[in-house]
């Protein structure tokens, strides 16, 4: 039975967070905990991570726990608390946890520290989709759909995974529209819908007519702005009926891969990269995307799989 726990020792550093713990049902199952930047009902990255925790619990009978809405200032303390309490795998959910993860790994060498979507970091297990590949596919679709020759990408902050997605996004877009421009904006908040909406309005005012939100719950604001102003969106960590198409980055599956490797004694502190050849690529196309644009994306997928199109 799942229950919500309160921790007095934790209250000072997680006043805005919720700590959830689940009892172990298998003696040798790995205990897995995650620090999340947002909430588990965001229909985006945090929910995907939560789904991975639940899948691990279901498969291994693991004791799982998570903390929502962890601020950057409390990342180290939240993750360290889990390590002190004996969790075998401590997850910092997202590239913004890179520095904190390195510190926790140094201080708790017996703990396996995992960062999905994180930059390669000494002592830390990072799991990434090949971000330029997925960005490229979305850029190709954006190139086929943009009327203004200007598209945009939004994130809460600058970090390696987003930079890599944008590099691919730009390259894909300019493979269709060589003189096209890609605008980039940062909101400094993963969950603030209103802030993301205003940032999207600003980009649309600069002629961007296809937007890629790389956000947690705040992605909703970008979609709303696009719908109101006649622009389009492509999805990278979420799916929406209004998206032209979404890239499927399934971090729940990635976490299960890590748990399986851990159970086999094979999980290492290195960067694991999931390529297009190993996983699904794109969700369903919106009905407004012409067949010729869909064909361009499928052709790009085949070129990536065959090695004709590569990303360093």
Automatic annotation (TrEMBL):
Residues 1-26 form the signal peptide. Keywords: Cell membrane, Lipoprotein, Membrane, Signal. Its main location: membrane. The keyword Cell membrane applies. InterPro entries: BMP_lipoprotein, Peripla_BP_I, PnrA-like. It is found in: Cell membrane. It is a lipid-anchor. One of its GO terms (cellular component) is plasma membrane. Pfam families: Bmp. Residues 31-235 form the ABC transporter substrate-binding protein PnrA-like domain. Belongs to the BMP lipoprotein family. This is BMP family ABC transporter substrate-binding protein.
């Amino acid at each position: 039975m799942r229950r919500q726990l309160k921790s007095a020792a934790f209250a000072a550093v997680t006043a805005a967070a919720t700590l959830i713990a689940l009892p172990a049902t298998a003696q040798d199952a790995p205990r897995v905990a995650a620090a999340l930047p947002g909430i588990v009902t965001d229909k985006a990255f945090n929910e995907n991570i939560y789904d991975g925790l639940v899948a691990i619990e279901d498969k291994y009978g693991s004791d799982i726990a998570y903390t929502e809405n962890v601020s950057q200032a409390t990342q180290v303390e939240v993750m360290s608390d889990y390590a002190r309490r004996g969790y075998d795998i401590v997850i910092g959910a997202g590239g913004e946890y890179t520095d904190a993860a390195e510190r926790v790994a140094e201080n708790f060498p017996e703990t396996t520290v995992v960062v999905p979507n994180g930059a390669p970091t000494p002592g830390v297990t990072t799991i990434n989709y090949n971000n330029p590949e997925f960005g490229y596919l979305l850029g190709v679709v954006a190139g086929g759909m943009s009327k203004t020759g200007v598209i945009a990408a939004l994130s809460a902050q600058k970090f390696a995974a987003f930079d890599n997605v944008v590099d691919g996004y730009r390259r894909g877009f300019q493979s269709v529209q060589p003189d096209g421009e890609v605008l980039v904006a940062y909101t400094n908040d993963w969950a603030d819908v209103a802030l993301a909406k205003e940032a999207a309005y600003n980009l649309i005012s600069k002629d961007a007519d296809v937007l890629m939100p790389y956000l947690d719950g705040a992605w909703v604001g970008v979609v709303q702005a696009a719908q109101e102003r006649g622009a389009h969106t492509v999805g990278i960590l979420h799916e929406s009926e209004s998206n032209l198409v979404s890239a499927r980055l399934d971090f729940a599956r990635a976490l299960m891969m890590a748990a399986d490797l851990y159970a086999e004694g094979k999980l290492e502190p290195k960067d694991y990269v999931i390529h297009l050849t190993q996983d699904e690529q794109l969700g369903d196309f919106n009905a407004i995307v012409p067949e010729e644009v869909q064909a361009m994306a499928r052709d790009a997928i085949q070129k990536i799989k065959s090695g004709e199109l590569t990303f360093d």
